[in-house]
Here is the input.
Amino acid sequence: MAEHLASIFGTEKDRVNCPFYFKIGACRHGDRCSRLHNKPTISQTMLLQNMYQNPVINAPLGPDGLPMRVDERVAQEQFEDFYEDIFEELSQHGEIENCNVCDNLADHMVGNVYVKFREEEHCAAALQALQGRYYGGRPIQAEFSPVTDFREATCRQYEENTCNRGGYCNFMHLKPISKQLRKLLFGRYKHRSDSQEP
Here is the structure.
């Protein structure tokens, strides 16, 4: 019996625990979900809820009552500035393996930032440092997340440009950063590991 329960934990067959919360760290039903959301007490990954304020989604209304057009290049520059801010702040506490920002539109995922550290202790230190802090005039809502494998959480169809659910998909649509920024931020860890080898 115990082996059976362990084999179905966090899957659709598990009628007790929410598979979406287990895979994605968020559930569209929130507290009204009929299944349990087992929030971890420690994790390598933290979730910063609704932290990224996408200028395309939050565009001011024009005189016609429709959202004003946002320059995609400017929006990407603002996103990369945000990404670098988050990365630099949190990397003070330890090595970051992944930093992912959701480009979804659904309330439970919009602007969510997932940061996975190499060590749980580093994630705990970063989470503690964020308590009572603000970013862009808004309080930071940080918590540990059960997500450790982003391949399971990411929408494969989105990566192939074939997701027909759009921004309301229940799997992560990750906002990409430029290769240059990725190399600048994550490249420092490659050099560290290279210098430690005999």
Q: What stands out?
A: The beta strands are 45-48, 96-101, 113-117, 134-135, 138-139, 142-145. Residues 83 and 177 are 8 Å apart (CA to CA). The first strand starts at residue 45 and ends at 48. The chain has a mean pLDDT of 85.
